[in-house]
Write a structure and sequence with these properties.
Layout: H1 2-26, H2 30-76, H3 79-98, H4 101-106, H5 108-127, E1 130-133, E2 146-153, E3 162-167, E4 169-172, E5 175-178, E6 180-186
Parallel strand pairs: 2-6
Antiparallel strand pairs: 1-4, 3-6, 4-5
């Protein structure tokens, strides 16, 4: 039996040597450690580069968005004030149109003052990008810039033609501030 114990001990020794050899083989070499560290650092670098590029793109998008918002505010920020001034324009125009020749002779200075004020208002409108939309009788109705106040069959006209202009419309740069109010011909019957 003593032999058996000796053999077992030798078997155990062989197994231990095999495990030791495997452990030595499993330990990474310095080159392998350096390669692993390089891979980790490279992955970190790539992640930081990606995050940096995304942050840079976000900053550029924010800059473009703020520039667009600034231009829009510059062009259209005064649209409420402009809209509130349109009735002043309408009333001055009606006042000038309603003055008779006799009233123009008697109150020439007053009429001239109103005309100068009207011209100045139109100049200020133009300076700020407010332009009138002035359709003529016979023009084709355009729902993008005209508002139909009524529709009536009028002989000698085609359906969709403007038959009367009630009020001018206005554009603020490329946006409609107020549509022109018009009467439109329906199909004559």
């Amino acid at each position: 039996m003593a032999e058996r114990n000796e053999n077992e001990f030798l078997d155990d020794l062989d197994a231990l040597e095999a495990e030791f050899d495997e452990a030595e083989e499993a330990e990474p070499t310095e080159e392998e450690l350096a390669a692993d560290q390089l891979a980790v650092v490279t992955a970190e670098r790539d992640e930081f580069k990606d995050r940096f590029m995304r942050a840079l793109a976000d900053a550029e998008n924010s800059r473009k968005r703020s520039e667009r918002d600034r231009k829009e505010a510059e062009n259209y920020g005064g649209s409420k004030l402009a809209r509130d001034l349109l009735p002043v324009y309408d009333n001055m125009k009606r006042a000038l149109e309603s003055a008779t020749d006799e009233q123009r002779e008697v109150s020439a200075a007053l009429i001239e003052g109103v005309e100068l004020t009207m011209r100045e208002l139109v100049n200020v409108f133009g300076k700020h990008g407010i332009v009138p939309v002035s359709p003529e009788v016979g023009d084709k109705f355009d729902p993008q810039v005209h508002q139909a106040m009524f529709e009536a069959p009028v002989p000698g006209t085609k359906a969709g033609e403007i038959i009367q202009v009630a009020a001018e419309g206005f554009m603020l740069h490329d946006r409609l501030l107020r549509p022109a109010q018009v009467g439109v011909s329906s199909t004559p019957g």
